[in-house]
Design goal:
The structure is a homotetramer.
Chain A: H1 21-37, H2 44-51, H3 55-61, H4 65-89, H5 94-111, H6 113-122, H7 134-155, H8 165-185, H9 195-211
Helix pairs in contact in A: 1-2, 1-4, 1-6, 2-3, 4-5, 4-7, 5-6, 5-7, 5-8, 5-9, 6-8, 7-8, 8-9
The structure holds a DNA duplex (21 and 21 nucleotides).
DNA sequence: TATGAATGAGAGTTCATTCAT
DNA sequence: CATGAATGAACTCTCATTCAT
């Protein structure tokens, strides 16, 4: 069969105001449901119900379940990446930039833990096939941006040069991720971390993750 | 109703020598297949074929697919945890212990990347339901062991005290994980990292992850 | 409940000049699409796109997909049947009439192979249920007209009497159909039969199909 | 996903005695159900129920619905083709051979009208794409065999040479088909043709279809 | 132990049809 | 007349699990 798809309402419309309200609703519902039951653990019906729309409408806006996940990712990562770019474009040293990124990520968690949950828990899920759509690319984009920050810091003499920028970036992002996972999972601050918990974690994570990158005589 | 269960020999037998050869084969096959296609992306049939045994035999040794995954985890983490414990019991400072753990993890990756892949990519997959079997517990066990190492280091004055041990441990483990992911995914050292690549990454990851935890005047 | 239907102008209007242009477009598009993908293999959306009209407009002019197909049939067969009637009303012997019918059918194929394709390939598709709309009736009407031609020929002594008129008609129509199918499918004259091919086939089919019906001493 | 298929129990097993009983049952049920409701009008569930097996078993033996239809075709046509070959290998003139083929086809109809129904009504259903599996090939094989018969008859001087063998074969097969359709549909001999009806039709169809191919002076 | 045929609930996807604008 | 977003029933296909041998 394999007939050519139509798919009129493309990815993200140029004019954000033009994005259909229901498409938004579905996307938001997907975040909640994925966060709650996991990608494999939920049915399209769950998303539709959560969004308060008819079953078929999900397929009106998204080609299939996979693309829905991709879209969720794309949207979330886009926000994250834009923040990174904004931070990088702003004032401050590379170390401050990296710290700002960490804080931003942890801030998001405070406001939208579910979104973070999806981002964190489903990232590398994609099997071997590189067929990964935007997902991986976006993830890599984030990593590269961070690596670039590290490189700048190294060039500026703020950060130690004996660590590959990618490794440095991965270390920071990894520390970030696993601390988030720990919070998500309830290992840090209990099932519902208070604002103070998050604040405390935030400070310490930055400390722990960045300390090692600073040029320091020991 | 309480009649003797026939599925007696299912779990790992006390006497490892007594473990049926085919059970091993299935377990190994599961690691490979899970690593390749992901837990949800593979069928029991795939595992059976890979193991070279009949379909139904998988169900002779494992109650269901979930339990198979749990067993894989259990086995892998057991190795990891035992290594951590051995390291902790050995000589050296806490910092050296942590470094040794990192090196060990990266060593495993060099010898059995697939096993690591499963461990890494499927860890937090389990949804909200706390029904998580041994999987999460084992993951937490590892985290706690590391946190304990950090705590000891803090008590001994080697490691900075202004970071929660769990956060410190999570940061190290996270850096470890994401660097592994980066390698698995091909962002570090290309699709097939050479031994030297791995060696280089190993050194730098340890540096990056631990540096920040050391008490240092800046 | 008996309120005036709004879908008044659905069927073919009495005054052909009054038929909306878009209705025509849809009907033509349907012929092409049905021919290309088959009735079950295409969606209303395909027809609409092919016709260059909006999705919902199809439902403005046709009650449902079935009725659209029926309309296509009705239109095509109507042409065919009118031609048969015209031929029958004209001069010549019964044998000449039958030959003319065959030639006409093959001529249509030359000009509008797609229309023929639909007519041929979807005719008997309708399952057991006698609920068949105009489709079958129209098909039967054609068969009966031909049978009538045969009967006349028999009464006039031109055609052999030992063959049931319906069987005779079916044989001619069948020969016609399968030769058309063979051309459609590419077994006669290749994928794109030339005009000469069609001409040759035309002559021979008439010969083959009619020869046996002639009263001839052997 | 598109994972490689396994499909252990291949098409038709070499040793017919080895063909699983249930596979047979499904195939037979498919013939009945397809005949009754048409390919598109029935669900796999119908076939399974009719066969008295579980839903999933259909997919154990057949890749999908399409392949099931193909298998039905293959089996039926195979019988037909083998009969043609047997007839051709036997004694008699080409004309007698062709007549024998017609009679055979009509005989099958008497014994297994449903099978014929499927064969006839679903033949050319396949859309444009040449992706047609065995279906078309088998149909063409039959046509070619008949054309070969015609050619032999022409060489032997029994049949007129001014008709392309393929056209001649198509004409016979077409006459056959449409007369069968007429019976299937109820236009010849009513909804349930008696044995005598069939016998009468048989004789006349042969007469009508072949008469024209004989070399005869007129 | 070992096998693989058999089962059937479950979920993704399609698409005819409706309806508010 | 015209549009296309919205609806949801229907159906195919998958695959974990069972069970007779």
């Amino acid at each position: 069969m394999n007939r050519p798809r139509r798919r009129a309402p493309a990815r993200a419309p140029a004019d954000p105001a033009a994005e259909p309200e229901k498409r938004r609703a579905i996307l938001h519902a997907a975040v909640r449901v994925f966060a709650d039951k996991g990608y494999h653990g939920c049915r399209i019906a769950d998303v539709a119900r959560q969004a308060g729309v008819a079953y078929g409408l999900v397929y009106h806006y998204f080609k299939n379940k996979d693309e829905l996940l991709e879209s969720v990712f794309a949207e979330q990562w886009t926000i994250f990446i834009q923040a990174i770019q904004a931070i990088r474009a702003g004032p401050g040293t590379a170390a401050e930039h990296l710290a700002a990124v960490c804080r931003f990520a942890l801030d998001i968690f405070r406001t939208a833990p579910q979104a973070v949950r999806v981002l964190i828990l489903e990232v590398a899920r994609t099997p071997n096939q590189l067929r990964a759509g935007s997902t991986r690319q976006t993830f890599e984009a984030a990593l590269r941006l961070l690596a670039d920050m590290v490189r700048r810091g190294q060039e500026a003499g703020e950060l130690r040069r004996d660590v590959d920028p990618v490794i440095g970036a991965a270390s920071v992002l990894g520390a970030l991720e696993l601390n988030l996972t720990a919070m998500v999972v309830g290992l840090l601050g209990g099932p519902a971390p208070s604002e103070d918990d998050v604040e405390r974690v935030k400070r310490q994570v930055v400390e722990a993750a960045l300390g090692g990158l600073l040029v320091a005589r020991r």
